[in-house]
């Protein structure tokens, strides 16, 4: 699917294409480093919401068109529509169902999400990459939380994601000082999965995407859910959650295939069921 952005002055779209069991999402506004308009964000919400209940899908891939991943939400475009000043409380009413909903969906959807990052990943674009299960970046990619430089406080999950991934001290450097982080440091810090040279980038992305799409989808989704649950739970609570998830995953066809493959000493052929 493809949706055009808010007006002729700010063209852009989000395209979603099924490739077997993989949903390939492209942020397509390269002239503005794929910065997101209202319509593009809403399309992301719609696409990810539909994907959450599409049981034929096995993995999601998000990337940007052209030389960059995403420069965040386009505040110039989204706050100048119609030329009227937004009413008081507009952000409080709108953002939870828009930008914040995108981050929640990426983080909680029971499908593996892979982001491939070239160039800039800034603001919401940075946080979208951080919320994914795996993010691969070219060695020259840059991650940036530019909120202080714009004069407003962080959003789209940055204050939750960054401390958990890289620690509070480094999160302060990125959020309070606006420090830019190169891809190599991002990988060393544990902020992203891996950096890859440009020449091997596409093949490495496709190899990992193939592994994710070929895995036991239900068990992957339940493990992703348990990891999220464990960040706010005690050990005992996490053990209980793991037990319920184990009960569910042991009832899948992929579990039976995994056992049979082990007995036959061969690689399993999971179907995502």
TrEMBL record:
Example GO molecular function: catalytic activity
Matching InterPro entries: ClpP/crotonase-like_dom_sf, Enoyl-CoA_hydra/iso, Enoyl-CoA_hydra_C
Xref: Gene3D superfamilies: 2-enoyl-CoA Hydratase, Chain A, domain 1 (3.90.226.10), Lyase 2-enoyl-coa Hydratase, Chain A, domain 2 (1.10.12.10)
Domain of life: Bacteria
Record family assignment: Belongs to the enoyl-CoA hydratase/isomerase family.
PANTHER family for the chain: EG:BACN32G11.4 PROTEIN, ENOYL-COA HYDRATASE
UniProt name for this protein: Enoyl-CoA hydratase
Organism this protein belongs to: Mycobacterium asiaticum
Lineage of the species this protein comes from: Bacteria, Bacillati, Actinomycetota, Actinomycetes, Mycobacteriales
